[in-house]
Structure formats: C-alpha cells, structure tokens
Design goal:
Elements (H helix, E strand, L loop, with lengths): L3 H8 L6 E7 L2 H11 L9 H6 L9 H5 L1 H9 L2 E9 L8 E11 L4 E9 L5 E10 L3 H12 L9
Length: 158
Amino acid sequence: MPIPMRQKAIESLKAGDTFTFSRTFKKEETERFGDMTRDYNPVHYDDRWSRSKGFDRLICHGLLVGSMLCEFGGQVGWLATGMNFKFIKPVYFDETITCTIKITKIETSGKAEAEAFFFNPSGEKVCSCLLTGRLPRPHERIILAQMVAEGDPTNKLS
C-alpha cells in the first residue's frame, strides 16, 4: 500500500491539500550534512561559538531542517522550481520537527505554489517556506501508479 502522500498524488492534487509529517534531527545527520555541503559553520560544531551567537547549544543546519520539503516533493513527484525560506528559531539536536505543507495554487499547466511551516515540540514556528514547482501531469500520475503497483521499489518509505 502506498504512503498517503504518494496515493494522493496518483489520485490528483488540488489547491488546499495539506500534508503534515515529522522528523527528529540527530547530531550525526548535521555532521553528514556538513560533510556533503562543506558547511562547517562553528554554530553547528563548537559550543563556545554557538553560545556566543545566543543559542543554548549546538544547532542543526537550517537547510537540513528545510530539506524536509524533499520528503513531500519526492512522494508526490513535485519538481521544485523555487524555495524561499525564513529561518525563525534554532532547531536543536534530538528535537522532533513537524512540517505542514499546504498547496495554495495549481495552474492547468501543472505549475503550483505551496507554503510550508515547521514547528518545534513546543509548537513554536522555527521556519517557513514559500515554494513553487510543477506537479505530475495526468500521464505522469499513470506512471506513478504503475510504480506503486510494482511495489514502488525505488521508494524507501514504502
């Protein structure tokens, strides 16, 4: 059985559709993210530096937290064309962040807009993002349905 986001994409997405999911960020993920991106800002690695910036402790990379959008995009087949992030509060290691994405506009061409909000365990908004992209067209939804019928072998969340 496909995960709900993928199933909704197969059926057809519409403006107003909303998706919510969560993820807990670990220190090891930030270290790997830093290695992949070459972002070794000490705010992620050195307590002295992080505290000098006004944080209680080391913080996750903002774009690692923002990458939660990739789970949504990957499941519904959203091809991103733009993302405008606003980082509001720090995300600390071992915090579970909840992301809610709402599709706000869909054109007949498949171009779409959405807004995303990220919340920490206290319910405080830590990040927001306006995103643009392209949704699967009808013939692509057929292919997505075929992939699911085959067990969705390239989707590790299935």
